[in-house]
């Protein structure tokens, strides 16, 4: 059945074209990860990152798909764009002009997207300059400087290179979203994490052969990973279905309506957005702090390492905040209640209009609390356990949540394309992906 589903993909020319286009652009991104920024001693930089494993720099490197470790043209990754998106989504709540733009439909969203692009460039310049200054003070454990010729020439070149790289990644993501399959930005992060998988597996075997990890511990971690993946799949497809009844109405000589349906509310409406946003917010100041050789700044960077109490506490707080914030931005109970009332729909036992919107909001608030708790547990608990047992950082919960969540989203979009053209999907009808399409 699954094989038949994959075979059907190539029977739909448009879907085949979209998939090949997506794979081609992701390949361009992975090629760019290996193009180094000029003026860097690659061997000294690699030695420095060997020492930085398990730190915030390793987390940033994971999201950039290994680009930071090589200091490639894509070293900043897509995080400046995500940070700019967070800033402008928050500003839509406090700035009336942006709030009005967000409600003006497609044209308003295009304008906010344009502002987000400008913000991405500004953040990239700031981060690029911070990294350039930090690199000049870095050296390998053997004492070899990372920057061959430090100075303003190197700083300017680095800022231009890294900013251009981030702008290009942003363009790739938008092209994938528009002409390919899936969310382009999420797929770029997905590709970066998955590309690190062979290294992580090889590192695990190395630790196993040298005796730093026991076979029993490896088996426990594998079981834990399978269990976490199972929980993610189960929760990402979990819904709270509110029954909705539509009253009968007569139009001309015909009677319409009278059917019963339901309003599906996802347990995790925001998907993988909260952990990505939370990570990017924590990484932005902490990464800059780690490059600045000032004692109190170094103390801040050390306190914000993954696995530390402060990092995990802030991470959980931001996850809860963004779960509620993103749900509030994407789902408006008042609009849903008004549309139901306009079409003669009502929730049994609840008055249409304001009472209905209050009821939906109350249910959504409760299930979002469960969704935020699940996301926090998946992201934090494995990370703490893995930090204690000195396992490769790749196996953290955030990476698994992003990989599984993005994979489910992409499969759901492929399913929708196939079902729209009456082709059988990946799974049987009873088990079709009930994703976010």
Structure description:
- By secondary structure, this protein is mainly alpha-helical.
- It has a single domain, classed as Preprotein translocase SecY subunit, CATH 1.10.3370.10.
- The chain has 18 helices and five strands.
- It has a three-stranded antiparallel beta sheet.
- The longest helix has 36 residues.
- The two termini are 22 Å apart.
- The relative contact order is 0.13.
- The C terminus is likely disordered.
Give the helix/strand layout.
Blueprint: H1 2-9, H2 13-32, H3 42-51, H4 56-63, H5 67-70, H6 79-94, H7 96-102, H8 106-136, H9 152-179, H10 184-195, H11 197-209, H12 215-236, E1 239-246, E2 249-251, E3 254-256, E4 260-266, H13 273-291, H14 295-303, H15 309-330, H16 333-342, E5 345-346, H17 354-389, H18 397-420
Antiparallel strand pairs: 1-4, 1-5, 2-3
Helix pairs in contact: 2-9, 2-10, 4-13, 6-7, 6-8, 6-13, 7-8, 8-9, 8-13, 9-10, 10-18, 12-17, 12-18, 13-14, 13-15, 15-17, 16-17, 17-18
Report a brief summary of the structure:
Helix content is 68%, strand content 5%. The chain is built from 18 helices and 5 strands. Strand 2 and strand 3 form a beta hairpin.
Class by alpha and beta content: mainly alpha
Looking at this structure, what is the CATH superfamily? SecY subunit domain
Please report the first level of CATH classification, the CATH class. Mainly Alpha
End-to-end distance, in Å?
22 Å
Q: SSE string, helix = H, strand = E?
A: HHHHHHHHHHHHEEEEHHHHEHH
Strand order, largest beta sheet:
4-1-5
Count of DSSP H/I helices: 18
* Helical residues, percent: 55-70%
Segments where pLDDT lies below 50 for 5+ residues? 427-431, 433-437
The CATH topology name reads Preprotein translocase SecY subunit
CATH A-level architecture: Orthogonal Bundle
Rough outline? globular
Number of E strands? 5
- How would you classify the quaternary structure? single chain
Radius of gyration: 24 Å
Mean pLDDT: 78
Percent of sequence in beta strands: 5-15%
Counted up, domains total 1
